[in-house]
Amino acid sequence: MGSEKGARREMSVSAIRNGTVIDHIQNEATFKVAEILRLAQEQHTVLVGMNLPSGKVGKKGIIKIESRELTPQEVNKIALIAPQATLNIIQDYEVAEKRSVELPERVEGIVRCFNPSCITNRQAVSTCFDVIASDPVGLRCVYCERVMTGPDIILK
Question: For strand 137-141 and strand 147-149, is the pairing parallel, antiparallel, or unpaired?
Fold first, then answer.
């Protein structure tokens, strides 16, 4: 059997009853988001898709997590890694809430300062960064004032 010219092919991914869908993840950030959320340790169904067509970001990733909503700290981490991502809260197979992730003005305790002389790397002081740019993400340490972008941003 040959395929008909112009035939439409469709890929379907299982729906979740309740939980969270993280959509419009930049393709290359998909596994980093999964790592941040420690999805390998999940007890519930987790679906991860990559290289999906997207008019918004070219190729995108998507993550569906059954029976789980994200904490504000997890959402902040996602915003640092995938600032164009959207969150869909699913209840009884329907989207109950949809919103874009947003970078906060200040990020506390979730990023490590890359300056080895920073007090946060020498004493028991929680890290704190002002968000100074969103695309690409830029952070300034409030203690040593070092600016970090892209690969310099290392999550705890």
Answer: antiparallel
